[in-house]
Write a structure and sequence with these properties.
Number of strands: 6
Radius of gyration: 24 Å
Largest sheet: 6 strands, parallel
Strand order of the largest sheet: 3-2-4-1-5-6
Number of helices: 10
């Protein structure tokens, strides 16, 4: 009944509806180059909201968004080549599911920010890029890593960005490298990349960072785990987590096992435990 009454009214007022359509339905699109320069300017001003929008553009599958992100990243790479300096220290954190990566980032991040405030006049800025697994059935992702960084995520000097893996193997996303560049452009000098819960051969993050850290749980296996090739031979540091309570003896034993067996595996880097 409402449709029958509405259509004759619309036909008698064509100009009114045309004005309504022009005001609310037609969006004015800015040239791509103008959008790119606007993103660059706001990123240099350390605007967190612009950084979030830029990472969303990089992760988007929309053709127009991909074109804007491509030009934006080209401009950032040109500036980095001219400066010939890397503006951040990148740390990759990997480990099996439930080992405590997010909890470790919360504690470690607060320690880094606290020490930088007391030792230098200019405080460090920390970015956390957390990768969460995507469902093979629905394609969705919970993105709950940020909930374990309650105090860290409230700090104005910290930016926490959870992203879905979208089926990408290796522990990271297809756009993790691009997100790192955007964080550097926004003035973050320490970048932590938290991978999804990985196995022995998911080592893609090792090529993106300056320091590769592996977190292992106590009683995570026998002596053969330290000899097996893969992620263990590529790390710079191995951290045995949950070293308290009833698990303290098991954590101490795991530390001794990795200390003795890391030399047998002949890692490409000099790892510390």
């Amino acid at each position: 009944m409402f449709g029958r009454l509405f259509l004759p009214y619309r036909s008698r007022r064509p100009k009114t509806f045309q004005i309504f359509k022009n005001l609310f339905c037609n969006k004015t699109t800015l040239p791509i180059e103008v959008k790119v320069q606007s993103f660059l300017q706001k990123l240099k001003q350390k605007d967190r909201r612009t950084l979030a929008k830029a990472i969303t553009l990089v992760e988007s599958s929309n053709p127009s968004d991909r074109e804007i992100s491509r030009r934006l990243l080209d401009q950032i790479l040109k500036q980095q080549k001219q400066n010939q300096t890397q503006s951040s220290f990148r740390v990759g954190l990997s480990g099996p599911p439930g080992v405590g990566k997010s909890t470790f980032i919360e504690t470690f991040g607060l320690h880094v920010l606290g020490s930088s405030t007391t030792e230098s006049t200019e405080s460090s800025r920390l970015a956390v890029l957390a990768v969460d697994p995507s469902s093979n059935r629905t394609g969705g992702s919970i993105l709950a890593d940020k909930t374990r960084m309650y105090h860290l995520s409230k700090d104005d000097r910290v930016y926490v960005r959870p992203s879905p893996s979208r089926g990408t193997l290796g522990g990271v996303t297809k756009t993790t490298n691009e997100a790192i560049l955007l964080c550097e452009e926004a003035g973050f000098d320490i970048i932590l990349i938290e991978t999804v819960g990985v196995g022995q051969s998911e080592i893609a993050v090792s090529d993106m960072v300056d320091m590769f850290v592996l977190l292992v749980p106590p009683a995570g296996g026998d002596e053969l785990q330290g000899i097996k090739k893969g992620i263990v031979e590529l790390v710079d540091m191995i951290i045995v987590t949950k070293d308290d309570g009833d698990l303290k003896p098991a954590a101490k034993k795991a530390q001794y096992e990795y200390l003795s067996l890391i030399h047998i595996s002949e890692p490409t880097r000099q790892a510390e435990i």
